Amino acid sequence: MYLEIPRKFGAIVHQAQQVARSVFRPISRKYDLAEHAYPQELDMFAAIMDGMNDGAADGGAGAGKLARSGGKPSEGNVNGTNMKTVLGLTELCWGDVGLALSIPRQGLGNSAIAAVASEAQLARLGNTWAAMAITEPGAGSDSAAIRTTATLDGDHYVINGEKIYVTAGERANAVVVWATLDRSKGRAAIKSFVVEKGTPGMAVVRLEKKLGIRASDTAAIRFDNCRVPKENLLGDPEISVDKGFAGAMQTFDNTRPVVAGMAIGLARAALEKTRELLAPVGLEPDYQLQTWQQPAVIRELQLLEAELEAARLLTLRAAWMADNGQPNSKEASMAKAKAGRVGNAITLRCVELCGSLGYGETELLEKWARDSKILDIFEGTQQIQLLIIARRLLGKSSSELK
Amino acid sequence: MTRDPIGLALSLMNRVAGQAWLDRLGLRPVVEKTAYQGTRAGFRTLALAGREFRRVNEWLPKQRLPAKAPADLFNLTLDEDQQMIVDSLHRFARDTLRPAAAAADEAATIPAGLFAAAAELGLTLYAVPEAFGGVAETASPVTSVLIAEQLAWGDMGLASALLAPFSVAQAITRWGSGEQQSRYLPAFCEESPPLATIAIDEPTPLFDPLKPATSATVTGSGYCLNGFKSGVVLGAESDLILVAAELHGRPRLFLVETAGTDGIRVKPDPAMGLRAAKLARLEFKDLRLPADALLGGDDFDYQAMLDLGTLLRCGLAIGSAQAVLDYVIPYCNEREAFGEPISHRQSVAFMISDLAIETDSMRLLTWRAAARAETGQSFHREACLAHLLCSEKAVAAGSHGVQLLGGHGFVREHPVERWYRDLRSVATLYGGVHA
């Protein structure tokens, strides 16, 4: 048993930290204020990241490299792509969550493609920048209730419907759209389709104005008789009660630890900044077993740090399990639930501890407290994670424990 | 791979069926409704016809167990021996501790034979280096934490009693001089090892273990000890007590043998929980100690001693919280209200999810701290974080447990009210433990 970050990931963590510090932080406030402006600074960085991945002997890291679920248990102990991606995103989000979400070719759609695409699809679509379109005006956490339809017509599927909250939906080169082949067949009929930018019938109708992560574009997209080649259906086109929806949901087992990692990076940034601001007042961290005789703020910082550390270790566990081919659905949700809630609580508390300094725009603390809320919502809300965990623990189906 | 020594000792256990143990060792609730009259009883002189530890003329040089080498990779897998220890102790906890726990709590006593069972498990052997008759080859705080988790899953009070002598052996191995190790450690490897404990806590609010009010002053022949200790596990039963006291402005530990001493008075100090651990209050009044009663020399580190204790305390917390989780799952699935199991309600189910999340949070924080300690890395920060998190989450786990059972949780028919009481101790006590 050993719970330290392996030395071999030191380089990627260091690189990501450099990017966060030198690329993201200096432009963080700029794109928070200039919502919907495209952060051009990221193009060059994306090229560097592609280069790093292509050259990596161990399979690289990033959204498009996450291990494909359902693999065979590995031989021996593996610290692989899942852990590496979590570590990288943690550092990048220490810099800025909105910008990290805007890195070309690192969209959630890329993870979906990595998780369920066939080898041929992976070769064709693996290098595109793909956003993920699941949510609809009438279907949020209840993904099975989506109304967007895909109808087979010759060699094409015809997609109709409206998607909202598509992260990077305007900037990405493609969107992975969840649609149903047959609404009467329930969740088994839900499939995902890659729709490339410029396909007639697909239009971005709106960009949302948001509480946080304003550097990241969040699009509403309408599909009007949008025809996509039938090879763009990811995975198995058959409506199978066994595999259908579960296949689509598998993506989340790999992406939830990554989103948890994002919350951890953000919260760590807030804690570090708070300590930095407190130091000149003579309040330094002081780890004690008996904490009740310390100043309230020092005890609180120790507790927040403990909560953050718990979230971090739960996240590493989930990623480690994925790297080692172990089913990790429950553990991925535990990581996401814990990191989402403590990330939000920590950033909000740090604003409070720093007073008007924390609340004002001079520092980034108030921004982080706004950014952190989304991390407890997207990729499954806190409540959805608790539901998944409870069903697994209690052995309940979704019709029993609703 | 070097075989973890406790694995060898524990393999003995596989030959004995759990149920048979209960009878053979007299572990069936031998409820002695006797003298545990609590705070009303006054102090009495602690006069055990206890064990005497022979001074040895030719002692061995002090032994320090080496740290393990840090691993290259993050790894949550238990090694083969750790897994075997966990499996064996889980059976012991399930078949022996759990059935005895309610009566032990009620009678505030330890079932006769339980220490013999622990001796047969070889618990203390594993705390002692080979040179002194034990089987330990490396320091292994991780394994200690795993042991505490499993025993506390059975019952935290009984686990505390079983782990107090183990902890003393650990502390002497970790900090003792060659002379002290030669005098005390072989006894812990005998067929019936001595009872022993670590007395740190004192009866004062906001007690800080770094600042004991108990004091030691230098005399011509050694030391003179004065002060009070409270919540001492096995305080009235122990042959040997490690006592925290201030010497020259710094906290130290003193080896206090209880046989034939005057200057120690004792009275029961029953508490909210951990009743089977027979907590006691001790008073030291001009207790004369020889010069070699001061534990350790230049390499003694009081903070590290407390930090290692914390790891074991956290292990106890994790085990008991896991017991709560494992109990409420079947209960909430079976208990029906409004025509269906209460586990079908999110308000119930989400509490169970939170219990699982926080129990694993406690576990991972503690494991990380222990793994750092085991590989010779700094672990003070990690131990403090684990302690604070366990302090907060352990008490919440106890509370969730009772709440989920409702009125049934409040009555003694179910064990959760006991776990609620035991779990409150995690943030409260510092003594009796050393990983």
Automatic annotation (TrEMBL), chain A:
- The name on file for this protein is Acyl-CoA dehydrogenase
Q: Which InterPro entries match?
A: Acyl-CoA_DH_CS, Acyl-CoA_Oxase/DH_mid-dom, Acyl-CoA_Oxase/DH_mid-dom_sf, AcylCo_DH-like_C, AcylCo_DH/oxidase_C, AcylCoA_DH/ox_N_sf, AcylCoA_DH/oxidase_NM_dom_sf
The record lists the lineage as: Bacteria, Pseudomonadati, Pseudomonadota, Gammaproteobacteria, Pseudomonadales
Where is the stretch described as Disordered? 59-79
- Cofactor annotation: FAD
Q: Which PROSITE patterns match?
A: ACYL_COA_DH_1
Q: Which family does it belong to?
A: Belongs to the acyl-CoA dehydrogenase family.
Q: Which GO terms describe its molecular function?
A: acyl-CoA dehydrogenase activity; flavin adenine dinucleotide binding
Q: Organism source for this protein?
A: Marinobacter profundi
UniProtKB/TrEMBL annotation, chain B:
A Gene Ontology molecular function term for this protein is: acyl-CoA dehydrogenase activity
- Limits of the Acyl-CoA dehydrogenase/oxidase C-terminal domain: 305-430
Q: Which family does it belong to?
A: Belongs to the acyl-CoA dehydrogenase family.
**Taxonomic superkingdom:** Bacteria
Q: Which cofactor does it need?
A: FAD
Q: Where is the Acyl-CoA oxidase/dehydrogenase middle domain?
A: 198-286
> What's the source species for this entry?
Marinobacter profundi
Pinpoint the Acyl-CoA dehydrogenase/oxidase N-terminal domain residues: 80-190
- Name of the featured protein: Butyryl-CoA dehydrogenase
- State the UniProt keywords alphabetically: FAD, Flavoprotein, Oxidoreductase
